[in-house]
């Protein structure tokens, strides 16, 4: 591990170039950006273009160096670097909403509430919310009282008392701890597989690409957060 760090330090003055990354919104902010911020601080001669796209793309045809998607969606001919642990979902709303409309005690009761629905695009709103009930996966189709294709707006609408949101827990963890949002139905949370950075197995990787991979490795992230 230390030899790898030393080798990268030797190139610290020469890492340059341009990297293009395609990522879904949530992992770009929560998993990619923290490492990218450190990377660019150390290697300011690298230019990075991040395209936020919640749909799968052909990264080779469209000229991307990396993609960020759920690890189970990565094609077998790609190299995948796990960026996160498993990703539990959370059903949240403000106390103001619950005081006005009541507190659902089961996933099925969500059908009688105002729900803030995430969307991939104009044609694919996620109204089938997934839960684990009595050990089985269930899907509850909720009303789309409000819909956004942006997680920040979904979260803000929940904070403003406009409805109940189903959102990755890591995206609202701070608000839950601060008491701004209340999580319900946590015993029945559904958990999705980890996120991964992926790239073509046989493509030549520039020094900039190799260095960014190093910064995104879990052990590097842990060292960066160490006291």
TrEMBL record:
<dbReference type="GO" id="GO:0043565">
    <property type="term" value="F:sequence-specific DNA binding"/>
</dbReference>
<dbReference type="GO" id="GO:0003700">
    <property type="term" value="F:DNA-binding transcription factor activity"/>
</dbReference>
<feature type="domain" description="LysR substrate-binding">
    <location>
        <begin position="13"/>
        <end position="219"/>
    </location>
</feature>
<dbReference type="InterPro" id="IPR005119">
    <property type="entry name" value="LysR_subst-bd"/>
</dbReference>
<dbReference type="Pfam" id="PF03466">
    <property type="entry name" value="LysR_substrate"/>
</dbReference>
<comment type="similarity">
    <text>Belongs to the LysR transcriptional regulatory family.</text>
</comment>
<protein>
    <submittedName>
        <fullName>LysR family transcriptional regulator</fullName>
    </submittedName>
</protein>
<dbReference type="InterPro" id="IPR058163">
    <property type="entry name" value="LysR-type_TF_proteobact-type"/>
</dbReference>
<dbReference type="GO" id="GO:0006351">
    <property type="term" value="P:DNA-templated transcription"/>
</dbReference>
